[in-house]
Amino acid sequence: MKVRVPLIFTSILLLSACASSPQEKVAPHTPVAASAFVHHYRCESGETISTTYSSTGSATVQYKGSHYKMQIAVSGSGSRYVGGGLEWWTKGSGPGSEGSLFHHMADGTSGKSIERCTGS
């Protein structure tokens, strides 16, 4: 006897497999993995942003005492990371590189600019 699985049930299973949990702040003292590196940025406002990049396509952005775990996202130019309601865009590497922090909108677009920074 052939068992038929209703299409709606199959669709729900496929969609639930693709779902991801919302990004949250991470603990302030998360250890840095051996394959990760930290980059520091000085912002126009005088604030600093330290970002830990890993080889897995993720970054942890430290800003104003909070840590935000972000995942790499599609960008037209540079590198874009999204998580915790924020977006972190970078262009270039090392001293003189550019970094910008934005609010991340629910529709996936960039919101209001928070900081513009330069790598040190």
Proportion of β residues? over 45%
Can you count the beta strands? 8
Strand order of the largest sheet: 1-2-3-4-5-6-7-8
CATH architecture: Beta Barrel
Helix content: 10-25%
Spans where pLDDT lies below 50 across 5 or more residues: 1-33
3D shape? globular
Structural class: mainly beta
Kindly state the mean pLDDT as a whole number? 78
Largest sheet geometry: 8 strands, antiparallel, barrel
How is the CATH topology named?
Lipocalin
Integer count of domains: 1
Provide the succession of SSEs: HEEEEEEEE
Note the quaternary state here: single chain
CATH class: Mainly Beta
* Whole-angstrom Rg: 18 Å
Helices, by number, come to 1
Q: Please report the distance between the alpha carbons of the first and last residues.
A: 68 Å
Q: What do we call the CATH homologous superfamily?
A: C-type lysozyme inhibitor
What does this structure look like?
The protein is 10% helix and 46% strand. It has 120 residues and is mainly β. The chain has an 8-stranded antiparallel beta barrel.
What is the secondary structure topology, with strand pairs?
Elements: H1 7-18, E1 37-43, E2 48-53, E3 58-63, E4 66-73, E5 79-83, E6 86-91, E7 98-104, E8 110-119
Antiparallel strand pairs: 1-2, 1-8, 2-3, 3-4, 4-5, 5-6, 6-7, 7-8
Summary of the model, kept short:
The chain has 120 residues and is mostly beta strands. The protein has one helix spanning 7-18; strands at 37-43, 48-53, 58-63, 66-73, 79-83, 86-91, 98-104, 110-119. The longest helix has 12 residues, at 7-18.
Task: Considering the chains and any ligands shown, give keywords for the structure.
single chain; 120 residues; mainly beta; Lipocalin; 8-stranded antiparallel barrel; 1 helix; 8 strands; disordered N terminus
